[in-house]
Amino acid sequence: MAQLMALSGMNGDEDKRYYYELVMVMEADNLPQRTGWLNEVLDEIQANTPFALLGSKYKGHSWDGFKDVMAPSLLNHINGNAIYNITHPLFQRYHKELKKEAGTKFAAVPYDYRISQMVHEGRYGTQPEFPFPWMRHHLSGKRIELHKKPQLVTYWKNHGGVDLDEQDAAYPIKESDVLANFGEGNFLQEHVGNAALVHGMNVYRPHNPNTHRISLVVTSWDNPIHRNNLLHDLNEKNHKHKQIFEEVVVMQNTFVPTSGAPSEGVPYRFVDRLNTDITDVCDAPVSTEWFYHTNSYHNVADEVDLLFSRDETVSRPVVSYTPAESIHCNAYKACRETIRIAREIYPDLDKVVLDMDLPYHVPSRNAFCNFWKAKYGMNGEHLALQEGGRGLALANSTPIVPTATAYVAFLYRNGLAEHLYHFSNTLRHGSKKLFVRAVEDKDTGTLVSFLQKQLDEDAASSDNEHERRLKGKPPRDPPPPPSPSPPPPSPSPPTTDQCASSGEVCKGKGSLPCCSLFTCGSEKKCIDASGSGYGGGSSRMLRFSEPGFLVDD
């Protein structure tokens, strides 16, 4: 945007002469797909004139899991790598508004997203959302909110076309067929289509069944209907797309009937479990080198893309993870407990992997399960005892199961993790679910409601305590008993223009608040939360599904 600001005529020149009519912003992570791409861009400009902005919305699939809760202005925003008509009166108004917002809270919003907010506010009168919920006002400590600007409605009315829809030739904000925006999201070359210029470099290889033979292990229980629905759905998906799994292994109780399953399609077999369901991932007899694990409350997603690295030798499966010291983990007890238990295996683990997001490597699974059972018991009984005898993971958010995160910890402990997998930060690059929930498991409503209530109460408590401090009232909790030895002198209270940076102590007595894009982690130190990007993971609810799968709903 700085380049646009510097153009002649864009800074209030009196003669209003423009040395350029159009500006194309093209960052270094744009990849031309073929020769002659610039001619295609010029032809598209000619075909779409007049316009204020011509570019691409997000074309990837990393948002698929939470599109229904995303702000429309984010979901529909045109990426900044676009073509700007700097002579169009609507763009000129937006440009001046962006300059006025410099140094204000509005400037925290990326400029392309902010332009989309202006369009939506002008068109629909909606209040813009602040996309970084962990940020707090440096004086009040409250959440930051953006206010409406009546002039944006006037701009749109005068220069946007109140009665126009997006398909109208005179609509000022237009989508490009030549430019394709994938941003920092992961994608396959087949997703690009006929675009001549692609924004995004995280392109991966598709699954090759000749090099990676994959099975599916399904944890099933007493109701065969859910199991049969998953098997029939899997057959339908395999006919619709390509076959994903070479075999399906259903782990179930001995007395469950096998009737009702499909008579053809993907090969499957029923295995009567000898231990409890929590060790199905360990006990499943798999004939392929790799397998995914799900349960009968889930189905395979409609659109499945298994991503593999572009290594010159052997491609590695791409596995999405959540940074352990991020607000997207720390906000959920299920996630905090998962990483705490996994760090008993590898103390430096910095990743949390959801249990249905990872293809297990069978030889490594075998070694891990032998280690896990020796440490925690054949059915996790030693771990349950260690955690105070609380046996149900759903009751207290403590996993007593061999989780995918614990498996990753074991691989790091033995130097195998990066050799077997290519890890991708889901807060930066997104992720695409392989399995979607088809049936409400029995504890879903209770646990999700409990977690949400807990988060709401924590937030309310934080706000109330801040208000009490502003009014000079003491905190609700009584002060701790005095120490036998004289405590060291407290540091001077922080001033409003001081704050802690990443790694420094936060929110303690006499300490500094976290600045800007930092949040206070579980160890009372500021941690970087900026990697989540705007909108990334905003709707995620990490929880345990039967019998202890860490999932993201």
Description:
The chain is α/β, with parallel strands linked by helices. Helices cover 29% and strands 15% of the residues. It has 17 helices and 24 strands. It has a five-stranded mixed β-sheet. The chain has a four-stranded mixed β-sheet with strand order 1-4-3-5, with no helix packed on it. Strands 2-8-6 form a three-stranded mixed β-sheet, with no helix packed on it. Helix 4 runs antiparallel to helix 6. The longest helix has 27 residues, at 444-470. The chain is globular, with a radius of gyration of 27 Å. It starts with a helix and ends with a strand.
Quick structural summary:
With 553 residues, the chain is α/β, with parallel strands linked by helices.
Features of the shown structure:
29% helix, globular, alpha/beta, five-stranded mixed beta sheet, 24 strands, 553 residues, four-stranded mixed beta sheet
